[in-house]
Amino acid sequence: MELHLFVNGKEVTTSVPENRRALDFLRKDLGLKSVKEGCGEGECGACTILLDGKAVCSCLLFASDLAGRRVLTLESLGKEGHLHPIQQAFAETGAVQCGFCTPGMILSVKSLLDENPSPDDEAIKKALEGNLCRCTGYVKIIEAVKRAVAIIKSQGLMI
Amino acid sequence: METLHVVYPETEQAFIESLEERSAILNGGTDIHVKIRAGKWPYTRLVSLERVETLKGISQEGKYIRIRCRTTFSDLLANPLIAQHFPLLYQAAYEVGSNQIRNRGTLVGNIVNASPAGDGILALSVYDAWLEIWSRKGQKRLAQIHEFILSPGKTVLKADEFVHSVILQKPTKPLRALFYKVGQRKAMAIAIASMGVLLETKHDRIKEIRIAFGSVAPTVVRIPEIEERAFDQTLNEATVESWMPFLEKHVVPIDDIRSTAKYRKEVCQRLLYKILDL
Amino acid sequence: MEKNPLTLIGTQLVRSDASEKVLGAAKYVDDLHFSDTVYLAIRTAEVASGALRSIDISKARGSHGVLAVLTHADIPGENQMGSPVPDYPILLKPGDEIRYVGDYVAFVVAHTREQALRAAEKVTVMVAEKKPVLSLNERIRELQKGGDYVPAVHQKIRKGDSDPKTMFDSCDYVFEGDFFADYQEHAYLETQGMIALYDQDNVMTIYGSMQCPYYVQNGVARALGFPINRIRIIQSVTGGAFGGKEEVPTYFAIPAALAAYHLHRPVKLVLSREEDIQWTSKRHPIKSRYKVGIADYGRLRSIQVEAHADIGGHSTLSPTVLWRSSVHAAGAYEIPNVRVDVYGHYTNKVPSGAYRGFGSPQVFIGIEGIIDDVADHLKKDRLYLRKINALEKGKTTPTGHLLPESVGAKKTLEEVERLSDWERLKERVAQFNREHKHLKRGVGIAHIHYGVALGAMGHALDASGAFVNVLPDGSISVHIGGTEMGQGAKTVIGAIVGEVLQQPMEKIHVYQTDTFFLPDSGPTVASRTTVFSGNAAVLACQELLKTLTALYSTEMAVPPQSVRYTGGVFSNTEGQKPVGFGELAGIALKKNIGLCATGWFQTPRLTWDPENGFGEAYVTYSFASQIVVVEVDCLTAEVVVKEVYTAHDVGKALNPDGVIGQIHGGFVQGMGYALYENLKVNEKGKIVSDNFNTLTIPTIHETPEIFKVSIVEEPFSKGPFGAKGIGEPSLIPTPAAIANAVSDAIGKRVREIPIRKEYLLDLIRTAP
């Protein structure tokens, strides 16, 4: 199946088997390794991507579902030495341990803050309930979101 | 496994023409992908609603609200009509899966999946929702949610039909709503047992009550005996306790991976006390 | 040399791997790719018990894309991966006994993973099935019948009067109780995975997700019949482990290595979540019976514990896990008379193994439950009762270990009392309960100790190395034998090196563990890495400083005893003739002076009598006390944790943020065990809750809203800067504290973990 889409701001035209999962397409065909597979059935959120700005599990999509849409993976956010405020907040707060859930978690935070720049605790939890973390107990993740909000505000940044 | 074919019609007409005997409709995919992965998916052809933009959305038609089939749970939560007129549907949508699942999963997909644990089905049940069913030949018919679902995974839909939309009548009076789901954990849970209640009282007397349970019978069940008898009863513990025997006939749960029949039965009775806090 | 003020240790550090992880650039095993890679699938027995009659691989071999189907005949070395007990063949051969559904029958290698999986289904296996033993109770009854049944494991502790006939004679009160703690699945987010390359130098190189590379190295050498020097293990970035990647990764490295050996191509095996849950070890289910005697208004005098563990189809690490259970079974208290017997029984289920806490959380629920019973009976405060029985410097543990130092037990109790505002907390909860009919809150306490490192039973493995190399630009590379698996080992070791060498973290690079750099440094388990790899790093750095000091002394004509090193600068005693670390390193290297050193830390000796189960069990102990507040919905038996107050004696918090991160994470994992995670095994011995929709680990919503931590620092003189371990003690008190809190809320003793709703509703219904 012919596929035309925008991945991390770049136009991609390619061909994929029609039953290829979006997860495999992004990870294996496009080499976007930040998209992780933790469960394969939409429970853990490690494969979270942003589809037209909304957080979705790429294991529950066909690659062909992405046609004509804007896909963001964590690769698009920051660069070494120039972290995105959310990434900076996660690093500084200690919201990262093993790091396997981190890409999906950060993308879920991004979609939250894009819609709601000052989320309360309940909004943070609702946005992140689909991203399982087995290491941190989530305490520092909640702290990191609040820190990201503060960084963004203090820098007058648009994310 | 045979190769799975997925087709992506872009208009309603093209979609309708794509429907075939051996095809299934992909509408969100949050359940179908799980089944495909588990090797439990019998169909080899999927017709996706992904690109049919006109089948998305919520509209007001007089005293009715129409929810088209591609409408996701996130769409429901974002629409003020739902929060205002159908708080129980709002609450149920709020507790479906996770943000990622709500962004993809659709109300109609949840209905057609016909799980007794379907949160959306429970909500539609207490609102006596209608489903507008379209066929390939262009026929339309209406079915009530209670008649639509036959048993786990089975509905009255024929091979050439699909659910075009959900039709809800706006309640004419304010009904207090309670959606309560007992799951294995607080969030991201599939119901072990769930209860939906709509209630109107005047000076502690019940004027109307609608009550349904999920995950405790082959389909979501309403309890007509309670609904009939409750009129003008005083809402208190004694009343609620007097209702318990009426559950017997409808609440017929099974043991499964998530819980036991015994627990489910008992918890349904005990959930009735939650109505007192409404 | 004089002591400098600490500049890194104890300060707020950013994890050294944070940047690559927040960028999504960290390479986990499945992110590594080698060209020509082929993929492996495992065909398992699929029946829980019986004898293997025959294997037919012809259909699988002809299946599309298949390159090889390997069976027992294809193992060049020993067909055995059981260690220490040789009860675990790699691949079953006809005639062999099947011990659980996941026993291996064949390995299928194909161009793609899907092809390999499809072909694996085509391997035909004939089995003479036997009725499996799936219930621990069945084994316990066999033992009690007194026939010739011998349990696979028996560990014991005997102290003081341990004769069950007399040991309770001098007690004023005797309390008894039965407890049960079920399985727990590790549920690390990254499933197990391996890549094997039969590489240059005729070496089998393996990249993989693991916590103990040396176990993998030894296991693969044995299977291939290679000398150990031809096996190289490189740990890839590891997405969580929690004990689940201790012995188990060997069972996946071996198939990959065998296939790479035969095909001379890179072989990748990354498990699906379902495979991972079905085939990897779990926390041991343990049934225990406690009998505790009290004298003198609440002092513990005698304790008898009999515990039975389900070890599954193979013994793997069970003897060691259950030894730890025995050492901790009597709790963190001073008790003169102790008798503990812990038995391990084979069943036809998944092998139980290492899991954070290593057999101790299951027994702490027993002793901590009974302590509450004692307090309630004597009408004494539950915290007070723990205080009067707590261990102190100069007292002996239940194994008879006289504690010379680093006993922060009582301080942790005092800290949770302060943090929680104990008296007011109890009143707050009572007030809540007066105001609510169906919602009831409860307060629970648990107090624990935890032996750091491998202890008397693991003496032979308890040493670790570190290699520190200073490069011409003054940057420092560090190799350690311990591993980073998310807990922060790289950061804490970097901080130790930086502190001793007085260099900033940016200059230090701690590498993923590679067995080619250091001798066998034992496993990264038992909360030992900070102490063992840390001490080894200190020793290596001290060696380097010695070399640099001597060089400075020669170069600057300053007597060695008057060389000062402060703030990364060498000088004489007056602070003159300053030369920076980097500059001096440059000079050294130009003069052909090597600036690399290996530190090797061996465990201090312990005196232990294995016959009688008595003596010094571990080099030191971490202590913790925890108070939790739960809310029970008495209509539905749903439980949520509202508040946590927890205090941990870690000796010295080298990286306080890291310590707190461990405490948060350990708590929530322990909470999952106590409340939400039900592992279900069906009547055929197969785990059916094999993904996260049925095995429900905590989400962000379950995290308690109030979470207060206090770090107690009672330095351990043999730890780096005084440190002890925290990895496991972070989890251990939680199941007991929650069980006690739920008991408090409903007014009836909870005796099972996880506290299933079905069980709890029965308790609530029958509560007074």
Characterize the structure shown.
The complex is a heterotrimer of chains A (159), B (278) and C (768). Chain A has 159 residues and is an alpha+beta fold. Chain A contains five helices and five strands; from the N terminus they run ββαβββαααα. The relative contact order of chain A is 0.16. The model of chain A has no long low-confidence stretch (mean pLDDT 96). In chain B, helix 5 runs antiparallel to helix 8 (119-126). Chain B has two domains: 5-169, Uridine Diphospho-n-acetylenolpyruvylglucosamine Reductase, domain 3 (2-Layer Sandwich), CATH 3.30.465; 176-277, CO dehydrogenase flavoprotein, C-terminal domain (Enolase-like, domain 1), CATH 3.30.390. The longest helix of chain B is centred in the C-terminal third of the chain and has 14 residues, at 237-250. With 278 residues, chain B is α+β, with helices and mostly antiparallel strands. In chain B, the strands form four sheets. Chain B has a five-stranded antiparallel beta sheet. Chain C folds into three domains: 18-26 and 463-602, Aldehyde Oxidoreductase, domain 4 (2-Layer Sandwich), CATH 3.30.365; 32-131 and 186-279, Aldehyde Oxidoreductase, domain 4, CATH 3.30.365; 286-455 and 610-766, Aldehyde oxidase/xanthine dehydrogenase, molybdopterin binding domain (Aldehyde Oxidoreductase, domain 4). In chain C, the strands form seven sheets. A seven-stranded mixed beta sheet of chain C has the order 3-5-1-12-9-10-11. In chain C, strand 17 (463-470) and strand 18 (476-480) form a beta hairpin. The longest helix of chain C is centred in the last third of the chain and has 28 residues, at 529-556. Chains B and C meet through helix 12 of B and helix 18 of C.
